[in-house]
User: What shape does this take?
Amino acid sequence: MPECRPEAQRHRLTIAYDGTDFHGWQKQEPPQVEPLRTVQGVVEDVLQRVLRQPIILVGASRTDAGVHARGQVGHFDAEPTAIPFERWPQAINDRLPDDVEVRDIEPTRPDFDAIGDAVTKRYRYLVFNAQRKPLALRRTTYHFWHPLDLDRMNDAAARLVGRHDVAGLAAASHGRDNTVRTIHRCDVSRQDEIVAIAVEGDGFLYNMVRIIAGTLVEVGRGKSEPSCIDQILATQDRRLAGPTLQPQGLCLEWIRHR
Amino acid sequence: MPECRPEAQRHRLTIAYDGTDFHGWQKQEPPQVEPLRTVQGVVEDVLQRVLRQPIILVGASRTDAGVHARGQVGHFDAEPTAIPFERWPQAINDRLPDDVEVRDIEPTRPDFDAIGDAVTKRYRYLVFNAQRKPLALRRTTYHFWHPLDLDRMNDAAARLVGRHDVAGLAAASHGRDNTVRTIHRCDVSRQDEIVAIAVEGDGFLYNMVRIIAGTLVEVGRGKSEPSCIDQILATQDRRLAGPTLQPQGLCLEWIRHR
Assistant: This one.
C-alpha cells in the first residue's frame, strides 16, 4: 500500500466493544440520511477529534450488528500531533462512549494491514442453556432451554478441526471465491447455565461462527448427529447445517497478525 | 388484613429482573400522563391479563430505578381461574418482557405479608475495579478504577455486623422513625475485576446498601479508615459515610420470610 502522506505513521489498535447498541463494525456507505451508529464510525470520529486530522480506520473483522468484541484489531495512519503519543489512549477513551474502548495502541510498520496480515482469529459463542430467562445476560447470550449434551457437541466440534471447504457453513451471500479455511480449534464447555463454543481459525466466511454454533446446538439437542459435520464438509450443502444463531451470543475474542 | 374476597387465595411469588430499563419496582402514583415502566406495573398488568381479574401486587422491597433483583418477593390475592394453577408460571412468563421473570409462585396463608413478614434480606453490590471500561458489565456494576484493598474493606465490613442505629448510613429522606437494624453479615470478595460487597440484615433504610458500598470503597481506596464505621454507628452522622453509589451495581439477592 503506497504511503500518500510521508509524515504519517501507521498505528495498530485493539478495540473492545459491547455490540448491543451498534449497527455492526462497518460505516454504512453511501451516507445515510441519519447515519447508523457503527463502531468504525464512532472510533474514527474520536480519532479525528483527538488527532485533529482526517483518519481512515481499517478493521480486521467486520462484525455484524449486535456482535461484541474483546480484541478487534484496526490500523490507521496519523501525522505527528501536539499530544504526546503516550497520552493518546486516555484522550481517546475519555471521548469514546461507554460501550467501546481502545485497549491498546502502538506504532507499527508502514505496510501493516489489519485485514491482510491477520493469520488467526478466535470467536466465542455463548448459549444461555436453562429454562429460566437470561435477563441481564440476554444481551450477550442466546437463550436455548432444551438440555444440551456437551459430549455430542464436542464430538461434532472436533470434526471441524482441519483444512476444509467450509462453504456449507456460510451464508449464501458470503461473496468469496476461495472457501477453504483452516479451523485450528473448536470446543464446547459449560459453566453453570452458560455453554461456550470457542472457534479458532485462519479466517471465517460470512455468518460462519453463528452457523457452526447453530449446528452444534442441533447436535447437542439430539436433532442431528455429530457426523453431520462430515457430510456438510464433504458436500458443502448449507441445508445440512443448523440455523444461523442470533448475533448477541457472538464475541470476537482476539486476532493474531503476521 | 381483612379478606374482602372470600374466594380469593393469597399467592407468594419470587421475581427476578434486570432493572436497567425499569423506573424501579413501584408503580407511580398518582397516574402519570405517560405511565413510567415499573416492575410492579408490568407484572401486575400481566397477572391481570392471565388471571382475568383485578390484581394488586405487593412487593417486599421497593428497589430504585436501575437496581436489579434475583429474588424479589411479592404477594397477591386471586380468585380461581380457568387456567390450572400449575400452568400459571409459564403463562405469566411467556407474556412478561425479556427483562423480568417470575421464578416461583405458590399459594400461601391468607395473612402472608411480603413486606411485614420479611425477616432477612440479602443484597449484593458489584464494583468493576479495573482501569479498563466495564463495557457490557456497565449495566450491572459500578466502575471504580483506583485499586481497592480488600483487607481494609473487610475490616470495615465486619464492624457493621450487629444491632445498631444505622441512621448515619441512610439517605436523609428515609422517613423511618425506628432506625435500628441488625446486620447479620457483611463481606467483600473479589473475582478478577469484580469486587462484590454482600450485606445481609433484617431490614435496610433508603439507599443504605449503596451508602455502605460507597463507604467501603472509600476505605478500600485509603480515603478513610475502617474505624470510620464505628464513628458513623456511634454518631449517626451521614457526613462521615461515603457517597451513595450508582444504582446499577445493586442487586436484591433474596428475602426470607417468617
Summary: Residues 9-107 of chain B form a domain with the Alpha-Beta Plaits fold (CATH 3.30.70.580). Chain B has a mean pLDDT of 95. Residues 108 and 251 of chain B are 26 Å apart (CA to CA).
